Amino acid sequence: MSYVTVLDFAAGGLLLCSVLLVWRRDLTAMVRWLSAQGVAVGAIPVSLALHRDDRALLAVGIGVLVFRAVVLPRVLARVLRGEPEPREAQPLVNTSASLLAVAVLTLLADAVSQPIVRLDPTPATQAVPLAVAVVLTGVFMLVTRRRALSQVVGFVMLDNGIAAAAFLTTAGVPLIVEFGASIDVLLAVLVLQILTARMRVKFGGTDVDELRELRD
Amino acid sequence: MSATLLLLAPLVAPTLAAVAIVLVGWRRSTAIASVTSCGVVLAAGATLAATTHTSNVVLGLVLRADTLTAVMLIVIGAVGVVAIWASVAYLDAELLHGHTTRPRARQYGALVNVFIATMALAVLADNLGVMWIAIEATTVTTAFLVGHRRTRRSLEATWKYVVICSVGIALAFLGTVLLYFASQHAGQGAGALDIDALAARAAHLDPGVTRLAAVLLLLGYGTKVGLAPFHTWLADAHSEAPAPVSALMSGVLLAVAFSAILRVKSVVDVALGPAFLRGGLLILGLLTLLVAASLLLVQRDYKRLLAYSSLEHMGLVAVAAAAGTKLAIAALLLHVLGHGLGKSVLFVAAGHLQLTHQSTAIADVRGVVARNPLLGATLAAGFVALLGLPPFALFASEVAIARGAANAGLAWPLGVALVLALVAFGALVHHGSAMLLGPPTGDAPELVLSLPAAAPMIAGLAGCLLLGIVAAPLTHTLLAAAANVMASR
Amino acid sequence: MTAVMGAAGVVVQVAAIATGAPVLVGVMRQVRARLEGRRGPGIAQPWREMRKLFGKESIRPEGTTLVFALAPAVLAGSALVASTLIPVATTGSPLDSVGDLFAVIGLLLLGSVALALAGLDTGTAFGGMGASRAMTIGALVEPSALLAVFAVSIPAHSSNLGAIVTAVASHPARSATPAAALACAAMAIVVIAESGRLPVDNPATHLEVTMVHEAMTLEYAGPQLGLLEWAASIRLTLLLALLANLFLPFGIATAHAGLAGLGLGLVAIAAKVVVLASLLAGAEVFLAKLRLFRVPELLAGSFLIGLLAVVVSSFLTATTK
User: Fold this and answer.
1) Which of A117-126, B252-261, B462-471, C164-173 has the highest mean pLDDT?
2) Which of B488, B295, B457, B266 is nearest to B376 (CA)?
């Protein structure tokens, strides 16, 4: 099993997980698919490291794997624990239209990422359009969902896509930056978790549509 | 040795103050320590301004200071001093009226100091990656500061702020990654994100990838600056936060985020030519001015009024950056400093009004000058400063921006920008005079402002006035900082 | 000689499908029965039912026109013609040049449309309901079907089904790529929707309100009903064979194979189709029918997966060469 096959399957799995995250409306299932996506993201640096025999990258890859497949979903699951109705209400864009939008976004990502592939046509960079598609899907999910937790899932998906793009283009950014970026993402998710808990107390639910007192 | 001290002091001082507050709580002593730490930041910035004229100051691989850094540190320090000084009176009043508790005041104090430290790190960063980390850290730090009052509205504001800014920052990270990718292909591997190394390789960066990176970085950091169409969080966050925090966010954080855009600009302009970012900044700047001017006209809440005024000034700053001449960028930096001081004074005064009236509606506040001449005069002076009237600093900077834009051939966009700024001017005068002048209503609560509470505001106004009158010594520094942004051609 | 062998191959293929299709349906029912704890009627039951139906009197409801009378013939005819075009047991058919993806999809669609028109022709509420449901599902399924096969045709550089299958047969590693996996997933959903199995449509239901395919055939009786059942079983067999051969075409007879090769091809496809059918029947035991308004979601998902297969295969073609 060459590293190219693993890389291709990881990138494909990444995209497939984002499709399933948009498709499913059950919040607990979404957290599980997010964990699967984390595995796909972690597989990319690990396979690159094994191919290049790079110990530092391998350590970073395992760290990323643990962080995105275990730690982040666990934080999100903690948010879900107090949730009486773990299902997304009717989203702003219905499921069929969302899936078609994801198709359009994938094509857009392909068009936009051409300069990146052209600069360095290796098997790794050829999967970058898929990572960019995941980023766009994450933004789409953030914009069209009503439940606070779905928006957080969209944000984590966005970040997964960016991390995958980082590893596919340059085998990561300098270690300190990767470390700092992970800490920042973790803190952001923790902040969002605390805010969701407070929202449940103050607003009696986590429907973001309830937040409409501030306006001009 | 002195280089280490100069570069580490702005980071270490606020951190130590934060640690002290966590251990001891928010007391007179720790409050003074916090104000002093901002003074340290200011002093470090001033010293660096003198030292970096000849060469940059570098510490190891993580910290670096050029004249732009020095100017930004001055902004952070000056506004920080005013804001944290005002926090003393603010928190005292809140504790007195039972709107907050001692543990929350402790959390506030610690977070504010960490906020100052992260902003200092953002301008002292040696490479774009560390700069990104620092700016993302500011979002996380200010999240709970915005939500300090624990009301429904502040929770809503915090949610919007964190979500929108985190998405923007994430996109900026993707842009940073792509820039790293391009940089690695243009030169040797290590240190590819270092500002100096990037500047050296800028001419060899692949245009396609750099264009993509530039768009992402502009949009990402632009979200943090509040440029339209990603401005929706700004009015909510800046109006719901406690007044000193609003002062810091409006006065400094927006400027620090814009300095990140300036750093990116110095690299991208060499790689792609100045036209690319000029167009982008111009579009975003004019759009921001349009949004701000229209929303200022219909405002009914004075804190949101001040927030939209910040938006307007950031739009003007973006137009100045689009012009890109040395004069324009130097004027931009002066504008940022003057705006920081003026806006912080206004927000602090607004905080006093909010404490007394328990409401932020313009209609509820009438005849401030008649009720309390000190507060009225400070508020009026702050408005005059903000409106860009002489002799305050903003007059000089706005004139210089106009000249710079005209020199750069942006006559038409400049015209549009001035018209919109005039509309904003009119709106501010209308709302400001409605609040300040005229007789007070019969049931107006008593406005109390002690001299210690008024001191930070007077200090801020004095600073703004000083800058306006005595700008000459600073000109040399500002032009040197502008040269940093223009980088090597 | 090859042309004669080719023609013989086609004839043998059609005959095998025509006789084996009802047996396949019988196998599916038997697997399902055993899993549900029943003894089951035996795999020859559909043939026994057809024998009974062909012996009955042909009835035509009052008010129906030629459309109603011809629909079973059109359905069965199009299914048989499609069975000559799809490379089931051999890729050496003389009709290979006509065996284009679009032709096959078009033929299957022709049959569906004929049946839908017949359902409308009866003038009953259930006939019209079944027809509209079937057409909705059909309209949504066609793009997915085209995309899924298109994704597999990109490496083969041709939309001719025979050429695609030959290309996949000569480069088996191509089936182990993400693009092929996605295309297979999309194709599986297409097969389920086109043949009217759970979770899109329940073939064993007797509640008219839940029917899609059966609602259109409610008014048929006797030989015409037998013809319809037979045609439906042929379509199911063809779709399963297409699914099997597009991704796992080992054993298929090529243009130059002799009688032995043809025999091997028949055995191989029979085995693959039986395995697929048993898997499908087994899965059906655990699935419930989707509510009709959720079916477009499923089909949109299959469309998206097919599109992703096309996109992924065009990105990663350099590595799958």
Assistant:
1) B252-261
2) B457
CA nearest C141: which of C200, C203, C209, C216? C200
- Whether residue A5 lies within 8 A of chain C, CB to CB, comes out as yes
- Cis, peptide link before residue B207, omega less than 30° from 0: no
Name the least confident of A77-86, B93-102, B375-384, C208-217: A77-86
* A181/B181 Cβ within 8 A: no
Flag whether A128 is in a domain. Answer: yes
Residue A215 lies in a domain: no
Predicted pLDDT of residue C317: 58
Q: Distance, in angstroms, between A181 CA and closest chain B CA? A: 6
Residues in C closer than 8 angstroms to A106, CB to CB, are 307-308, 311
With an 8 Å Cβ cutoff, are A115 and B206 in contact? yes
Hey, are the CB atoms on C315 and A110 less than 8 Å from each other? yes
Of C216, C15, C246, the closest CA to residue C119 belongs to C216
* Domain span including residue A167: 3-210
Total domain count for chain B?
A: 1
pLDDT tens, C124-165? 999 999 999 999 999 989 888 888 888 888 877 887 888 888
Which sign, positive or negative, has the C-alpha torsion C82, C84, C89, C93? Answer: negative
C-alpha distance from A100 to closest chain C C-alpha (Å): 7
In angstroms, the separation between the Cα of residue A116 and the nearest Cα of chain B is 6
Q: Fill in the DSSP letter of residue A147.
A: B
Domain housing B156: 2-486
Chains C and B are touching, with contact defined as 3 or more CB–CB pairs separated by less than 8 Å: no
Q: For residue C135, what pLDDT is reported?
A: 92
Does residue A15 belong to the interface with chain C, where contact is any CB pair within 8 Å? yes
Is A37 inside any structural domain? yes
Two tokens, residue A67: 């962080």
Between the CA of residue B188 and those of A57, B191, B214, B259, C285, what are the distances in Å? 19, 8, 21, 27, 61
Q: Hey, are the CB atoms on C179 and A12 less than 8 Å from each other? A: yes
Q: How does pLDDT run across A36-74, given as a tens digit for each residue?
A: 999 999 999 898 888 888 888 888 888 889 988 998 888
Contact A195 B155 (CB under 8 A): yes
CB-nearest to A187 from B130, B140, B235 is: B140
Query: Within a domain: residue A13?
Result: yes
The structural domain count of chain A equals 1
